[in-house]
Specification:
disordered N terminus; 12% helix; mainly beta
Length: 549
């Protein structure tokens, strides 16, 4: 009964999971080319507009105004391995990473407050762009597994006439039918076996003696994801005595995410197949704030200590989903399966029912950093960041907490540690060389999985458990009297365990989590360039235009 209640979840029909929450937590190593080239380890060094999003006090280091923009290209490579079947893909994307300005105002040379600086920066916090393909045998140590068994499990206890009616898609509350079960019943992927019980109609044959023979299951999955998490940062920073820097940033966020996925099963020797195609997108807005400080404790030394705290981000989000399930299954009166005409069911018949609005509150984030410069030739930075992903919360649009979903976040996610180190070397007065490294621990436990409530409208069964990530960066910089530019290269790599579905077997004594994963290896390579224009060059351009007129 406890497990059944957990599966059922709240009385309100919804489709959110811990994976939807995790998607909007954390960030890519993105920003200006100088920031990327140094691995983002500039929280205590400051003097770069990208520090507005890590340690807002870094803007206090500026002594002149600046305007900058960054763009680049990324190549995303994927390798998958499902039971020995391997696939590879590469895709090239363009990327507009940031645009912003800093206005620096000198207050005085002898006053305690030396500078008051203001800044604005647009930055792409995360990119969701990627393509994936996976195929192979779906099985565990006990034999073949099929996604259709999940559909049957979700449908247990529901009357046939209800599961086959429109009410299955329009009713709300705890007694609502799972959309996956209703779609599978209408397309004959699952069938009734009496007493409101259901079983899969695919993946087996009946031999000459009337015995059911389960066939190997070949699963095929493809997906196309697009979009990003974008931030618009507004900053103010103060410089006291050229030794104490204080800063605050207010961040406004916009979210656009879309995914189209296709999953198909086929069975050697069997005539029937089925497929499930999903369209899913999320949009919304968010807001947070950040406070930071940089201190130079010793007047005779350039050594700096930085610290920052980021409040949770409050997101207001809306998910929209639709799906099509097709099959050519035909159940004969003697219990054998044949191939028949194509059956199809499209949830777009109920577009209003597949939209859900909700809130996400991300965890607090804490940042500590160190910086040290050796004359004008070398700059060294190190940074540590911590955020407890398990403390995130999901709420309905009326502010009531999603108890079950938030509980799954607490047990499925964990604290994330991020380490950044970087260095900059002046090769000549105008030219610099940079190098950096990032390491971020995994946000999920190895046995975390996506649980679909019995009354859920969710039709996406796939999920991925990401492992630790590594970033390696190098960069070059040129700084002239009125113009300077930077170039950075980033190599980002991580692995994930991808699951096309999970199953909780209804027929065993206890509900038992069974699934099959594909090991995915991702490599992201970025080339980013940033161009800057100082205050003096902007003034000269204006004067030149006036003289021409």
């Amino acid at each position: 009964m406890v497990i059944a209640c957990t599966l059922l979840g709240t009385a309100v029909v919804n489709a959110q999971s811990l994976y939807d929450a995790a998607r909007l937590m954390g960030n890519d190593l993105n920003g200006t080319a100088r920031f990327i080239g140094m691995g983002g380890a500039m929280g205590a060094l400051g003097g770069d507009i990208s520090t507005m999003g890590t340690n807002p006090a870094g803007i206090g280091i500026y002594r002149s105004s600046d305007v900058m923009t960054s763009f680049g290209f990324s190549n995303i490579g994927m390798k998958s391995n499902m039971n020995g079947t391997k696939n590879e893909q590469d895709k090239l994307f363009g990327s507009f990473d940031n645009i912003g300005f800093v206005i620096s105002s000198r207050i005085g040379n002898e006053t305690p407050l030396r500078f008051v600086n203001f800044g604005f920066n647009y930055r792409k916090v995360k990119s969701f762009d990627k393509n994936m393909v996976m195929n192979g045998m779906i099985e565990d140590k006990e034999g073949p597994m099929s996604q259709s068994d999940l559909f049957a499990t979700l449908s247990q206890g529901l009357p046939e006439d209800y599961l086959g009616s429109n009410a299955a898609f329009t009713d709300g509350g705890a007694d609502a039918a799972p959309w996956l079960g209703a779609m599978a019943f209408r397309t004959r992927v699952i069938g009734a076996i009496g007493d409101n019980k259901y079983a899969s109609n695919v993946g087996y044959m009946v031999d000459n003696e009337g015995n059911e023979v389960y066939l190997p299951v070949v699963g095929e999955y493809t997906s196309r994801e697009r979009g990003g998490l974008h931030s618009y940062d507004f900053n103010v920073a103060l410089n006291f005595y050229d030794r104490i820097y204080l800063g605050a940033t207010i961040g406004a966020y916009s979210v656009d995410y879309s995914r189209r996925s296709f999953y198909k099963e086929s069975y050697p020797g069997d005539a029937s197949t089925y497929s499930l195609e999903n369209w899913f997108d999320t949009s919304g807005t968010g807001v947070d704030s950040k406070l930071g400080v940089i201190i130079r404790p010793f007047e005779s030394s350039s050594f700096r200590i930085g610290a920052a705290i980021h409040t949770p981000t409050w997101f207001n989000l809306e998910d929209r989903a639709s799906a099509i399930m097709t099959s050519d299954v035909d159940m004969n009166s003697d219990g054998t399966i044949d191939k028949d005409e194509l059956y199809e069911y499209d949830t777009m018949d109920f577009p209003g029912e597949s939209k859900t609005k909700y809130e996400l509150i991300t965890p607090w984030k804490y940042n500590l950093s160190l910086g040290y410069t050796i004359g004008r030739s070398v700059a060294l930075g190190a940074e540590y960041e911590y955020s407890d992903y398990s403390s995130a919360k999901l709420k309905y649009d009326d502010g009531v907490k999603m108890e079950d979903e938030t509980s799954q976040i607490k047990t499925g996610l964990k604290g994330v540690h991020t380490l950044r180190v970087g260095a900059e070397f002046k090769l000549a007065p105008e030219f610099s060389f940079r190098v950096g490294y990032n390491y971020m621990t995994a946000a999920m436990y190895d046995d975390t999985f996506k649980r679909i409530a019995l009354n859920s409208i969710s039709t996406s069964t796939e999920f991925s458990n990401l492992k630790a990530t590594n970033n390696y960066t190098v960069g070059l910089g040129y700084k002239g009297s009125v113009f300077y530019a930077d170039l950075a290269y980033q190599f980002h790599t991580y692995k994930e365990d991808f699951y096309p579905f999970y199953n909780e077997s209804y027929w065993r004594l206890y509900y038992e989590y069974i699934s099959q994963f594909s090991r995915i290896s991702w490599t992201y390579t970025y080339v980013t360039t940033t161009s800057h224009s100082k205050k003096q060059s902007i003034k000269r351009t204006i004067i030149c235009k006036i003289r021409i007129l």
